[in-house]
Amino acid sequence: MLSIKNLTASINGTPVLKGIDLEIKAGEIHAIMGPNGSGKSTLGKVLVGHPAYEVTGGEVLFEGRNLFELEPDARARAGIFMGFQHPIEVPGVSNAAFLRLAYNKKAEAEGRDELDPLEFDDFIHEKIKLVAMREEFLDRSLNEGFSGGEKKRNEILQMAVLEPKLAILDELDSGLDIDALRVLGDAVNKLQRADRALLIITHFPRILETIQPQFVHVLSGGRILKSAGKELATELEDRGYDWVLEEAAAGGAR
């Protein structure tokens, strides 16, 4: 589904990604972990086309298509979704109107029928149960006045509405208490299917207890230094990242 080869990228002329190689197949869950400033969020933003980042080298194919030939909105319609670490507030745009427009644009791109307001009302009320969000949040402006946890619920609600082929979740666990993390983790698990893939970006392994990846990658200094199974997340919690950095410096890991 996603093939990344020797990806390099910079922001304001400063290199951030320095040669990323990663393959993600349909049905797989991958986790990217690493210290602050390692390039984890940058990788997600580059994949969805954030304009602040300049791709300086390498190749990314999404279902065989050159991802960098697609504008950000085309990437979204093709099935790439990103749940942001810090979702922005959009005063004056109701949450329900935003979600319906997003749904209908994707439906149009896929040749499916759009939903009118009444049809969408039935549709969204089923989806909102998945993230245990109160229905009053649909009538409020997008994320305006939402707590950190409410914004994260809204991100997963968007994911449930759009049903992307590839979902990138950037630090879903930040700002969530244990109960909210469990609810959203369970919701993400219910949305995962054999024809979809998931990339989780996180500092901490707690979220990976609910959303269990098959692959864990340690990213530091703009490079993936180590990849292994889900047991790596537990080892990182016990030992931190220094041992991975030491192994990489000694040439014993990739």
From TrEMBL:
CDD domains in alphabetical order: ABC_FeS_Assembly
Q: What is the lineage of its organism?
A: Bacteria, Pseudomonadati, Acidobacteriota, Holophagae, Holophagales
GO MF entry, a single one: ATP binding
Pfam families given in the database record: ABC_tran (PF00005)
Q: What is this protein called?
A: ABC transporter ATP-binding protein
The superkingdom listed in its UniProt entry is Bacteria
**Nucleotide-binding as UniProt keyword:** yes
Instruction: Give the keywords, sorted.
Output: ATP-binding, Nucleotide-binding
Family annotation (InterPro entries): AAA+_ATPase, ABC_transporter-like_ATP-bd, ABC_transporter-like_CS, FeS-cluster_ATPase_SufC, P-loop_NTPase
Member of which family?
Belongs to the ABC transporter superfamily. Ycf16 family.
Where the record annotates domain ABC transporter, the positions are: 2-246
